[in-house]
Amino acid sequence: MITFLFIILVLFFIYVFFYKQSIEDYTILQLKDWNKVKDSLTEKAPIIITDIIIPYCVNKQSLLNTQRFLNISLGSCNLKDYLDGNAQCELKVNSELETFLANETGFHSYANQNIYNKLNTHFASDYISSFESRICFGSHTLQKTSAIYTVIIPIESKYTVSLVNPNYGKTLPENYKSIDNIERLQTNVQYIDVIVKPNTILILPAHWYYLLKADTKGAYYAVIDYHEPVSVLNSYLDKMS
């Protein structure tokens, strides 16, 4: 029994070790074929996949055609006014609403059928993995990925994604989550900007920092967080800190 527990403990630490690993440079991989993504995921580098079809259930016209979505409050405006670009909207959207929209539009089901299985990279993935999906609006301040993979899918508008390698995280201030423009920082932070348009997706490994800047009014995007037990625990600890 003690031997068995020791083996489990060793395997767990190996598992955590691989979760904590990251590359030191800013290599960005670009693919046109989903079938090659599993081999690329093991390289721990951000991946851009082009020529991706956006499901109709979350495109702008589909949302505008769904009456029950139109009056959903996004802060100082409702969803219809935001999508039409007719109002200056001070966004205030919580994660519960983002998750609700992913579920109610059918995007979560789409991701389950078309994306989730492509991120399963080892024999135990089917048994220990899970995923969350959200529909998010506008730009987003700097944040850190904790999921094994974070998938960003622009739906309306192109986005400039500023990426900070985990190895440069120590150069960020403690209040990094409030940063909305890395160029304004006084510290010498090394980062790279990636332009992601609709019909492309960006996959980020764990521990990368990213900031999203929308190009136009009415912009929104989808996020998929692919989790395994170690990342679920890490996400919980991040929220508690």
Walk me through the structure:
There is one protein chain. The protein is an alpha+beta fold and 241 residues long. The protein has helices at residues 2-20, 37-41, 60-64, 67-70, 79-84, 95-105, 107-114, 125-128, 229-240, and strands at residues 29-31, 47-49, 130-137, 140-144, 149-156, 159-164, 192-196, 201-205, 209-214, 220-227. It is globular. The two termini are 36 Å apart. The relative contact order is 0.19.
Count of distinct structural domains:
1
Distance between the termini: 36 Å
Please identify, by name, the CATH architecture. Answer: Sandwich
What's the CATH topology label? Jelly Rolls
Give unreliable regions as ranges: 4-19
Outline, from the CA principal axes? globular
Number of helices: 9
For CATH, the homologous superfamily is named as Cupin
CATH class category: Mainly Beta
| Strand elements, count | 10
What is the fold's blueprint, element by element?
Layout (H helix, E strand, L loop, with lengths): L1 H19 L8 E3 L5 H5 L5 E3 L10 H5 L2 H4 L8 H6 L10 H11 L1 H8 L10 H4 L1 E8 L2 E5 L4 E8 L2 E6 L27 E5 L4 E5 L3 E6 L5 E8 L1 H12 L1
Parallel strand pairs: 1-2
Antiparallel strand pairs: 2-8, 3-10, 4-9, 5-8, 5-10, 6-7, 6-9
Question: What descriptors fit this protein?
Answer:
Jelly Rolls, 31% helix, 241 residues, 9 helices, four-stranded antiparallel beta sheet, alpha+beta, six-stranded mixed beta sheet
